[in-house]
Write a structure and sequence with these properties.
heterotrimer, A alpha+beta, B alpha/beta, C alpha/beta, B: alpha/beta, Rossmann fold, C: alpha/beta, 4 helices, disordered C terminus
């Protein structure tokens, strides 16, 4: 017989304070939490006849991030669901209160990490409103150009994730090819593939360079053909279409009352796009349509999917106009290094690929903002999942959630 | 005993209650229980005779169990002879190195770069890491990609404990190596090495897919050379205490 | 800057405004008392000349002295954003009526304001913490949030150096780093 196993000596020593052992990490929240703390909790955590709770825990194969959803199911039908957030809450608003205005731009990149230029755009606009800064036209055009490129990349990723959540493993590979091309072009311009840190108060960080232009030119020459190919991947797939049609119907009144913005409300039939409703930057000069889908009863998941494909086409149009009409000039306004705006308040909102992304900044005269509030669209949209999921199957939960295109970084801040 | 010819129909003994006077079976009275037949166990001997004898387990946690002598480990303990690799070891290590199956543990932005490393342009499938398992019971490597918050620390440690050995851990991105840009926040953990043992640190915010692949190459080297074996894992940063 | 909006607001909300209607660039700002909030919002939402149907944001603010609840609305009838500030909430017992009757989508934003500031929204059916664990006791975005106190009560125990309330005393052994021969 072999000797009994040696005890493991090298485990964490109990007196090293940097190591958090089991008892210190914290407890899981019990399901159901007794006693219920709120009215909605009491309603949710009361089981009817034949119902049970199913926990889709913080780690699950859906790629939206760490979201925990407690489902109340009766057989295979989902009766109700309760999302539990906070598994990615990093305290960005508090960190931004202790950073100066330059630092904020890099701090809030990771909110919606797939479209991080839009995350920079809204704060930069709000700081410019605080300080009454005029942004040069070339910088505005570069902002629009890079923003629309990133919108296409984000919608391509949405396409891949939508298919991945329904079980198709191939379209995500096509999506990542699209994304890699665009993101390598932006890396040639900004130096980073993902969290770009490119916009500055008063302009952008650096002018366009040859490599970026050659990559974008290459990509534009194939863009529409590639887009047609990507559409053809899935639109005629019967399984895909039948799994999405009629699921998650969102009607117009509900959409307005729930504060839905972006492609989700345009797929329900309401033509609200911040670029047209409250134009910013150089969007008034650019010609593009705002695609809207859905009947007078609203739109379902398939409408949301098709709408984002329509938006890619419009973005290609915008990029084309930007490239042709790019003005000359400086790319950044002349500003002091240390920015101390006068005390005041400013709100700015942009149309990110997920919806209305807005920031509200309160300045107290120092070089750090007094309050920096971030409004993320995906946070509001996640409330919809419970409402849209009545009498659907468990497998449709992911379809509905994916069609709303949430990104957990923004939801949890 | 040798049989003594055909058994004669003996007269029923007084103690023999089974057959009645004419050979028919008689039901046993309720209180009569015949003595059980015991065959002594000469086939195998238990290594832990007290295994099923205690009513409540003394250990509720795997980590406590590992430290005691009740835990048996599957790997052979050769002591100092461990340094001599046998041919079987080489083969096993090659097999393990070339088919490390990661667990889908993408928490935040680094998850996108991890997915980018797994898809067509930077293909991790070339080294066998294609299937990102959803269940920790089937995974070898835990690539933690993204910020670890205090709320997520519990579930992540559960995931790590649920993974069967051999297992390795890769800390991808600045947030998992040291807390990164969220080091001063009230709700993040400054690096996952505070809660679980880490084999490879891949810094970057986010690291390029090539960077992650380099980290996985390094992990392959670790696997092959059996450095940082899973039972010698230390939890804790490898820096002095007052730094 | 929409001057007509200012006159319309002053006409319709005359006695509920606690201060003048301020306008700057493309934003118009009005201040109300918390008790008048629901009526104000109803007028803004239903009145055919105002028609502020889209709620863009619901935020909590800590001014250091009192708390505020700030709402941003959008309307098709004006090119300005409208900001409504419900101000003067006391720090010990900040209560605001909830607008989930008009906009059910504000439910989670109000949960977040409760989680971060402690503002209690009366009428919100689901006022529990959304980001922090349910047994968390502090309100992180308040100005009097003291990180060492908070983390001492939490699972980590306050061991990170950002959670230590005081800097180490000069010149003791603990503050002298080990030198590395490199």
């Amino acid at each position: 017989m072999t000797a009994p196993a040696q005890p493991n000596q090298q485990h964490a020593s109990e007196d090293d304070p940097r190591i958090m052992l089991d008892g210190q990490i914290g407890q899981y929240e019990q399901v159901p939490p007794y006693p219920p703390r709120t009215e909605r909790e009491a309603e949710f955590y009361t089981l009817g006849d034949g119902e049970m709770f199913l926990n889709m825990g913080p780690q699950h194969p859906s790629t939206h991030g760490v979201l925990r959803v407690v489902l109340k199911i009766s057989g295979e039908n989902v009766v109700d669901l309760d999302p539990v957030l906070g598994y990615l809450h990093r305290g960005v608003e508090k960190l931004c209160e202790n950073s100066d205005y330059h630092h904020i731009i890099s701090q809030i990149d990771p909110l919606e990490y797939v479209s991080s230029l839009f995350m920079e755009w809204a704060p930069v606009m709000s700081f410019e409103k605080l300080m009454d800064v005029q942004v040069p036209r070339r910088a505005e055009y570069i902002r629009v150009l890079t923003g629309e490129l990133l919108r296409i990349s984000s919608h391509a990723l949405f396409q891949g994730w939508m298919a991945l959540d329904l079980g198709g493993l191939t379209p995500i590979l096509y999506s990542f090819i699209e994304r890699d091309e665009i993101v390598e072009a932006l890396a040639a311009l900004t130096g980073q593939r993902m969290l770009f840190n490119y916009f500055r108060v008063g302009g952008v960080n650096g002018d366009l360079n040859h490599e970026f232009m050659s990559r974008v030119g290459d990509w534009m020459s194939r863009a529409l053909v590639q887009h047609e190919a990507n559409i053809g991947l899935l639109n005629e797939n019967e399984i895909f279409v039948r799994r999405m049609r009629g699921i998650g119907k969102l009607d117009r009144d509900t959409a307005l009352r729930m504060g839905v913005t972006g492609p989700n409300i345009r797929a329900a039939g309401i033509p609200f796009d911040v670029r047209r409703a409250h134009p910013y930057s150089v969007y008034p000069e650019l010609e593009f349509n705002v695609p809207v889908r859905g009947t007078k009863d609203g739109g379902d998941s398939l409408d949301r999917y098709l709408l984002r494909l329509d938006e890619v086409r419009e973005s290609i149009r915008i990029i084309d106009q930007c490239l042709h009409n790019m003005p000359d000039g400086p790319v950044m306004a002349r500003l002091p290094r240390l920015m101390r705006p006068r005390p005041g308040r400013a709100w700015a909102a942009v149309e990110s690929p997920r919806g209305l992304f807005g920031t509200y900044v309160i300045s107290d005269g120092t070089d750090q903002p007094f309050r920096f509030r971030i409004h993320d669209p995906s946070f509001v949209h996640l409330q919809l999942v419970g409402m849209l999921m009545k009498d659907n199957l468990i497998a449709d939960t992911m379809a509905v959630m994916a069609s709303l295109d949430p990104v957990m970084g923004g939801i949890d801040k | 005993m040798t049989p003594d010819g055909p058994p004669e129909t003996a007269a029923p003994a007084a103690e023999d209650q089974i057959t009645g006077g004419d050979g028919a079976l008689v039901a046993a009275a309720p209180r009569d229980v015949s003595a059980p037949i015991i065959v002594p166990n000469t086939l195998w001997s238990s290594t832990r005779p007290d295994a099923y004898l205690s009513t409540s387990p003394a250990f509720t946690h795997l980590r406590e169990l590992e430290g005691s002598d009740l835990m048996l480990s599957d790997t052979a303990r050769w002591g100092a002879l461990d340094v001599i690799p046998t041919k079987a070891d080489i083969l096993v290590d090659l097999i393990r190195m070339n088919s490390l199956w990661p667990l889908l543990s993408g928490l935040a932005c680094c998850a996108i770069e991890m997915m980018s490393a797994a898809t067509s342009k930077n293909d991790m499938d070339r080294w066998g890491m294609f299937p990102f398992r959803a269940s920790p019971r089937q995974a070898d490597v835990l690539i933690v990609a993204g910020t670890l918050t205090t709320k997520m620390a519990g579930p992540l440690v559960r995931l790590w404990e649920q993974m069967p050995e051999p297992k390795w851990c890769v800390a991808m991105g600045d947030c998992t190596c040291s807390g990164g840009r969220y080091k001063r926040s009230y709700s993040t953990i400054e690096g996952i090495d505070r809660v679980m043992p880490v084999d490879v640190y891949v810094p970057g915010c986010p690291p390029r897919p090539e960077g992650l692949i380099y980290g996985m190459m390094k992990l392959g080297q670790l696997v092959k050379e059996r450095r940082g074996h899973w039972d010698e894992h230390r939890i804790g940063p490898n820096v002095p205490r007052d730094v | 800057m929409d001057r007509t909006l200012k006159t319309r607001l002053e006409a319709k909300l005359a006695d509920r405004l606690t201060g003048p209607v301020r306008q700057r660039q493309d934003q118009t700002e009005i201040r109300v008392k918390p008790a008048d909030l629901i009526e104000t919002m109803r007028v803004l939402h239903d009145d055919p000349e105002l028609e502020f149907v889209i709620l863009a944001d619901m935020a909590g603010v800590d001014t250091g002295d009192t708390l505020q609840a700030v709402y941003h609305l959008w309307s098709n009838k004006t090119p300005d954003w409208l900001r409504i500030i419900a101000e003067g909430l006391p720090r010990e017992d900040p209560r605001v009526p909830s607008i989930t009757g008009l906009w059910p989508g504000a439910e989670w934003s109000e949960r977040e304001a409760y989680d971060m500031f402690g503002i209690i929204f009366e009428g919100n059916r689901d006022l529990r913490r959304v980001y922090m664990p349910p047994d968390y006791t502090s309100f992180p975005l308040r100005k009097d949030f003291h990180l060492p106190d908070d983390s001492a009560r939490g699972p980590g125990g306050g061991v990170r150096h950002v959670e230590q309330p005081y800097a180490p005393v000069q010149g003791t052994e603990q503050s002298i780093r080990r030198t590395v021969k490199a």
